[in-house]
Specification:
With 138 residues, this protein is an all-alpha fold. 62% of the residues lie in helices and 0% in strands.
């Protein structure tokens, strides 16, 4: 491959780590994973991602099962996760429909309330995690 001035392109001759026959098995595995991902409906990918954010936020709010739940609590981290979840759910809701968005909104609201309960100094209404996307949570 050449550029217009007949100099070789910067990556000419560059081999990617997956180019060699020793990596052919990995290539096939990656292709199989891509095919598997392609078969998953978008709504399932979106809800799975939301559930992961919810689970992480619940742990950070101190809602983990087990004796170490209080040690795992980190409200600064929980705030970030809940805010990200709120933006994600708000943006995804029109795409996934109320059948799927409703339970996600309910879970989000529960996390927002749990955060408020866990806070020593609760945020003012409308200023809690994610409330810029959801509005005040009561």
């Amino acid at each position: 491959m050449s550029t217009p001035d007949n100099n070789p392109a910067p990556d000419a001759g560059h081999r990617h780590s997956f180019d060699g026959p020793e990596n052919a098995g990995q290539d096939q595995e990656v292709l199989a994973q891509m095919r598997d991902i392609a078969e998953v409906p978008a709504v399932e990918v979106i809800t799975t991602a939301a559930v992961h954010l919810m689970s992480a936020a619940a742990v950070k709010c101190g809602l983990a099962a087990g004796e170490d739940a209080e040690q795992l609590k980190d409200l600064d981290e929980a705030r970030k996760l809940i805010t990200a979840l709120a933006g994600f759910v708000t943006a995804a809701a029109p795409e996934i429909g109320s059948q799927h968005a409703g339970p996600l909104r309910d879970g989000l609201r529960s996390l927002q309330l749990a955060f408020r309960e866990a806070s020593v100094l609760p945020d003012a209404p409308g200023h809690g995690p994610g409330e810029k996307f959801t509005g005040p949570v009561n």
